[in-house]
Design brief:
3 helices, globular
Length: 151
């Protein structure tokens, strides 16, 4: 039984839409990261392996692709957002990769320092990085639980 199933969530349950449940969660749309400089942010995320899907400099917005899904990571310039180190209590988004330890090595080779060495988690391995504004992205794999991984 997966960790999600132990709390009543199953990746195998069909999505049921109901007009009686207008707030039923259907999936992620986009994850928004506030940044202080669009060019610097796009450069950082391109080095981390994120392709840019759309960029609208006039409004300080870039949309980064995540896999084959349409939703992605939105970088939006916000006034007053300054460089800052990441705090442990900051929100995080984890993205699935085939091999998190290899992703950590590739990030290091691209000049992006991990917050800590890759660590073992229940499903595999995870490595996290923070952008210059303290937004944290984790790269996680399912090497210990391949039956839960995307195909």
């Amino acid at each position: 039984m997966s960790d999600n199933q132990s709390v009543g969530l199953s990746v195998d349950q069909p999505v049921r839409q109901s007009v009686d449940q207008p707030t039923e969660l259907l999936g992620f749309d986009n994850v928004l990261f506030p940044v202080g400089d669009l060019e610097e942010a796009v450069t950082f995320y391109e080095r981390a392996g994120f392709p840019v899907a759309h960029r609208i400099d006039e409004i300080g917005l870039a949309i980064l692709k995540v896999g084959k899904e349409t939703p992605g990571i939105l970088l939006r310039v916000e006034e007053g957002v300054e460089h800052r180190p990441s705090a442990w209590a900051t929100p995080r988004v984890w993205l699935e990769v085939g091999d998190a330890r290899a992703a950590g090595r590739a990030l290091e080779a691209a000049g992006i320092e991990a917050l800590a060495p890759p660590s073992s988690v229940a499903t595999g391995w995870t490595v996290e990085v923070a952008d210059p504004w303290g937004n944290v992205v984790g790269f996680t794999d399912y090497r210990k639980r391949p039956e839960l991984a995307r195909s």
